[in-house]
């Protein structure tokens, strides 16, 4: 079905968070502690806008809108609305509404609350642009913008070293993956000739049938795996918990970490259902699921426990997305929705407990049920959904994904076992977060625990209740949300019919769910012992990817420092050698490798006086080489410059000759003045070997420039530019001297810049020659050079 063209309202909806980011600090100053309410209207209105697409998308409709951004490059600012992008847009804007409210209560009175709101809105806009982006380059721009804005949010408390480290780590890992994705996008465009996602999805087999499938697959997975924290890139996500809790709740529920999953789901019709896809994704996803849940059990910090289960959940989503079995993909979509709701609620619960009790350590919390009843209710509802218990959306998701893994062709038994162990450990963490802090004897906490303001519990309550409501109306949920999203994954319109209770009491999913719950309860009862065992095993292993990241960064710093000491060691001679080696390579290597060497020219016929000028230039070169002092060499160098000026004059370019004479005269005079003010040895005392090396470099540069000029002059002369200046110099600029018109009118700004550079150079020279000296110069009667001049000699 061809996407329908819609108006620019959707484009404005994508840009609205960026406008809100601009006004957020202003509103924060105006409304003081109540700025969250008017600011939350922005994502709320965005949610309402995209809710209008639910009905047409549910019957298979797709929509596009675009405006030209860089038309000469074929880059448009365009959006593509289908089931997948609509679901993500609703999650981002809907959860984002409550995140803004939650941030208003969590950071109440913070002096930088306005700046925090700005960062949140930038983050929200970047994620909306990513999931709605139709043009591949605009998608990449928003992809990288999520990395930059997450860096700002994670490092918000920049005075803490842990925050700065976590922010840099997230930026390096996800930014590096973004570069891989960029390379993949360029390959996709070259292979398919398409820059729009909608056009790419219309021809899904082009990449699979090309010889470039493998590199595109690797590059796309590099971007997705780093963004969605798949093993072994999982370590940055738990460290991102150094960010304030509103960031953690938004990051883990609906935004950045889901970006990689979104990309894999979006590219499933294009890259999926191949042997490579159905092998690599389940493998890495399954390992990430197990690693995340095991590391979550090890933690005692509420946020870290939830963070590692997010890693595990992302692994589960990647594992299911790697299937070619439609039921497994349906389970992935359902779990995506369920996870966004219960994880956003639980993170806000953890933050509220920390905010009102003063600690997130689960071993120091207990008996908060009576002190925080609303937060407790929200935690229970979200925890039950995370545990996969009825009647919550998490339960339906677990049943469907078990249908998918059990019916998975080939490796279904292995995938089922991984899913059962992972879900059982998820239940352990859900129970630890939702039960441990609220039951048992009341503990002494750093703060007197009490219920937070409405801004803190509105989000957890609404999200957990929505998770319950969606499960109680399963048919509507399937028709409006799951079916359209699944259609985007499989590439064809698909309708599904969800049920809260399974059709058969005795069926593989029911049996697997029973085993999962039983195993989870047993492990929860042995949580302390299990935590100690995992801690001991991790201690014995010692090294991990997180430590490896620090070692890699330290190695990069050491290598870069060594290179800097080599090329920036403070010696002018080193700088000059490196500069001219680079110059020689730039002109010679392309000519030799690319076959751009000129043809051997014929010996020209000149008059005796023309040959005499060339002879003078050669004699000037010899004079430079045999000069006894540097000052003599500089004066001798002027011979060549004057010879070039005479050549210009002989060949009918008096203006160039005059310019050359002026430049050469000034250069000789200025260099002579500078040299007389420096205490230099009469002659360069370099060894013969060093002289040969520098001589070779000089000859290479000269040969490269000469060959380049010769190759250029052997090309057919294009008179288009000359004819243009000849025709328009008088009629437009009212000048008959074409050279003057070019300098003053056609390239006047460039000429102004050159004048400024020359003037600045003159001022620098004036500063050099006005240096005050203190003692006699051993070469003559003039005073000894000053300390500043000595420092110049040293370099």
Automatic annotation (TrEMBL):
Residues 72-117 form the NADH-Ubiquinone oxidoreductase (complex I) chain 5 N-terminal domain. Pfam families: MbhD, MbhE, Proton_antipo_M, Proton_antipo_N. InterPro entries: CPA3_Na-H_Antiporter_A, MrpA_C/MbhD, MrpA_C/MbhE, ND/Mrp_TM, Nuo/plastoQ_OxRdtase_6_NuoJ, Proton_antipo_N. The keyword Transmembrane helix applies. Residues 616-678 form the MrpA C-terminal/MbhD domain. Residues 134-418 form the NADH:quinone oxidoreductase/Mrp antiporter transmembrane domain. Keywords: Antiport, Cell membrane, Ion transport, Membrane, Transmembrane, Transmembrane helix, Transport. Residues 696-779 form the MrpA C-terminal/MbhE domain. It is a multi-pass membrane protein. The chain crosses the membrane at residues 12-31, 38-71, 83-104, 116-133, 168-192, 212-237, 274-297, 304-325, 331-353, 374-393, 413-434, 454-473, 505-525, 575-596, 608-626, 633-651, 657-680, 692-712, 751-769. It is found in: Cell membrane; Membrane. This is Multisubunit sodium/proton antiporter, MrpA subunit. It comes from Roseibium denhamense.
């Amino acid at each position: 079905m061809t996407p329908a063209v819609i108006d620019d309202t959707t484009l404005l909806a994508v840009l609205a968070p960026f406008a809100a980011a601009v006004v957020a600090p202003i509103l924060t100053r105006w409304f003081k502690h109540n700025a969250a309410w008017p600011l939350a209207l922005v994502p709320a209105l965005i949610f309402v806008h995209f809710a209008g697409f639910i009905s047409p998308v549910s019957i298979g409709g797709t929509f596009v809108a675009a405006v030209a951004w860089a038309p000469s490059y074929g880059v448009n600012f365009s959006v593509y609305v289908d089931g997948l992008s609509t679901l993500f847009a609703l999650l981002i804007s809907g959860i984002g509404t409550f995140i803004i409210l939650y941030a208003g209560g969590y950071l109440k009175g913070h002096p930088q609350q306005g700046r925090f709101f700005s960062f949140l809105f930038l983050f929200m806009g970047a994620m909306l642009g990513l999931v709605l982006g139709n043009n591949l380059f605009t998608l990449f721009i928003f992809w990288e913008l999520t990395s930059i804005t997450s860096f700002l949010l994670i490092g918000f408390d920049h005075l803490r070293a842990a925050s700065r480290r976590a922010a840099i780590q997230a930026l390096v890992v996800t930014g590096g993956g973004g570069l891989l994705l960029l390379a993949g996008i360029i390959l996709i465009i070259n292979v398919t000739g398409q820059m729009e996602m909608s056009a790419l999805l219309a021809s899904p087999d082009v990449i699979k049938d090309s010889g470039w499938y493998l590199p595109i697959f690797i590059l796309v997975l590099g971007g997705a795996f780093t963004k969605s924290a798949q093993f072994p890139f999982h370590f940055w996500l738990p460290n991102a918990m150094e960010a304030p809790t509103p960031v953690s709740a938004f990051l883990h529920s609906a935004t950045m970490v889901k970006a990689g999953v979104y990309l894999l789901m979006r590219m499933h019709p294009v890259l999926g259902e191949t042997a490579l896809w159905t092998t690599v994704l389940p493998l890495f996803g399954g390992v990430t699921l197990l690693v995340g849940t095991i590391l979550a059990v090890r933690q005692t910090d509420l946020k870290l426990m939830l963070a590692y289960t997010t890693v595990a959940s992302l692994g589960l989503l990647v594992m299911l997305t790697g299937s070619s079995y439609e039921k497994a993909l349906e389970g992935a979509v359902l779990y995506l929705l369920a996870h966004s709701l219960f994880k956003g609620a639980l993170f806000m619960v953890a933050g509220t407990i920390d905010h009102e009790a003063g600690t997130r350590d689960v071993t120091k919390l207990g008996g908060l049920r009576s002190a925080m009843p609303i937060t407790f209710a929200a935690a229970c509802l979200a925890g039950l959904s995370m545990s996969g218990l009825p009647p919550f959306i998490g339960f339906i998701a677990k049943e469907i994904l078990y249908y998918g893994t059990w019916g998975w062709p080939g490796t279904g038994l292995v995938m089922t076992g991984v899913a059962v162990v992972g879900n059982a450990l998820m239940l352990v963490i859900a129970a630890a977060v939702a039960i441990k802090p609220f039951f048992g004897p009341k503990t002494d906490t750093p703060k007197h625990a009490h219920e937070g303001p409405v801004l803190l519990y509105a989000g957890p309550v609404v999200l957990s209740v929505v998770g319950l409501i969606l499960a109680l109306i399963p048919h509507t949920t399937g028709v409006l949300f799951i079916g359209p999203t699944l259609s985007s994954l499989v590439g064809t319109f698909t309708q599904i019919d969800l049920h809260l209770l399974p059709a058969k009491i005795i069926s593989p999913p029911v049996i697997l769910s029973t085993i999962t719950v039983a195993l989870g309860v047993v492990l929860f009862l042995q949580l302390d012992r299990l935590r100690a065992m995992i801690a001991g095993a991790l201690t014995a292993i010692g090294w991990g990817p997180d430590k490896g990241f620090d070692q890699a960064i330290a190695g990069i710093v050491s290598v870069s420092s060594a290179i800097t000491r080599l090329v920036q060691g403070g010696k002018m001679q080193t700088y000059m050698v490196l500069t001219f080696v680079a110059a020689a390579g730039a002109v010679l290597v392309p000519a030799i490798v690319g076959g751009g060497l000129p043809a051997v020219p014929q010996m020209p016929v000149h008059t005796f006086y023309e040959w005499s000028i060339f002879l003078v230039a050669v004699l000037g070169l010899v004079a430079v080489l045999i000069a006894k002092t540097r000052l003599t060499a500089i004066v001798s160098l002027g011979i060549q410059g004057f010879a070039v000026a005479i050549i210009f004059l002989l060949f009918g370019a008096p203006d160039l000759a005059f310019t050359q004479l002026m430049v050469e005269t000034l250069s000789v005079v200025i260099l002579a003045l500078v040299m007389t003010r420096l205490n230099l040895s009469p002659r360069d005392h370099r060894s013969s070997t060093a002289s040969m090396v520098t001589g070779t470099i000089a000859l290479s540069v000269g040969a490269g420039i000469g060959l380049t000029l010769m190759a250029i002059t052997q090309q057919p002369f294009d008179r288009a530019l000359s004819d243009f200046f000849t025709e328009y110099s008088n009629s437009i600029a009212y000048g008959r001297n074409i050279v003057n018109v070019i300098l003053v009118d056609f390239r006047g700004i460039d000429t102004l810049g050159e004048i400024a550079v020359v003037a600045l150079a003159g001022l620098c020279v004036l500063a050099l020659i006005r240096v005050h000296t203190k003692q006699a110069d051993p070469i003559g009667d003039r005073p000894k050079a000053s300390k500043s001049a000595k420092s110049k000699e040293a370099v």
